């Protein structure tokens, strides 16, 4: 009797993976159906349909920053006028603003109140310093969990990866009407986008750089909440994989859409310009 009980137990253990695979296969078939019938174009259209639509965006956030084994925590505010301006204020836990940033389509400005300095430059300087090829559109997309606005859609490949849809493309060039002379080489060699199979929001995105094989920009999005009848990820992680890894984890709160905003940015006369 004991022998047959043990035999039955072993049979159940052997059959369990088969039951699991059988239970998973219908869901996988459902996920495969739109790819098989309509291809990557269907997923890309759903991505565009579900991404955040806005003219103005503002939020508060708390963040953790790590670089070369050092970690810092800070609070901040972010304000965005779509395709025009990104304004960020960073405040350490003491509650006094330390850094203010103003980013436009062609310039990057920063006030550093910790050492009474300021910086005014363009993306060419910033990208030489970081050895990257970031532009306004890429930054805006990563901050909000949207796709790139002013790049060719390219030829995406669709697949299923760990229970999510995945879109991959080899190259996306910036649309010619948005290319400035110094940006002629702005292109993304490899881009991967993962989509939630239910709400089609981007959960993870990465772009492989552009000038050096060992640089990659990556973002993840989680904790989706309703924001004016749209879904917005409250938790985000941004990672720059380079010679040293830079990671920022942000938790957003008090998000608002389409309320006109001010972007105050006045450099004190006593501050020294950093070159």
Describe how the helices and strands are arranged.
Layout: H1 2-38, H2 40-50, E1 56-67, E2 70-81, E3 85-92, E4 99-104, E5 108-112, E6 117-121, H3 123-130, H4 136-144, E7 157-161, E8 164-169, E9 172-173, E10 187-188, E11 190-195, E12 202-208, E13 216-227, E14 230-241, E15 246-257, E16 272-273
Parallel strand pairs: 6-16
Antiparallel strand pairs: 1-2, 1-15, 2-3, 3-4, 4-5, 5-6, 7-8, 8-11, 9-10, 11-12, 12-13, 13-14, 14-15
Highest CATH level, the class: Mainly Beta
Categorize the overall geometry. Answer: globular
Low-confidence stretches: 2-7, 9-24
At the fold tier of CATH, the topology name is outer membrane lipoprotein receptor (LolB), chain A
Q: Which CATH architecture is right?
A: Clam
Task: Tell me the helix content.
Answer: 10-25%
Q: What order do the helices and strands follow?
A: HHEEEEEEHHEEEEEEEEEE
Q: What percentage of the residues does DSSP assign to strands (E)?
A: 35-45%
Major beta sheet summary: 14 strands, mixed
Secondary structure tally, helices: 4
Gyration radius, in Å: 23 Å
* CATH homologous superfamily assignment: Lipoprotein localisation LolA/LolB/LppX
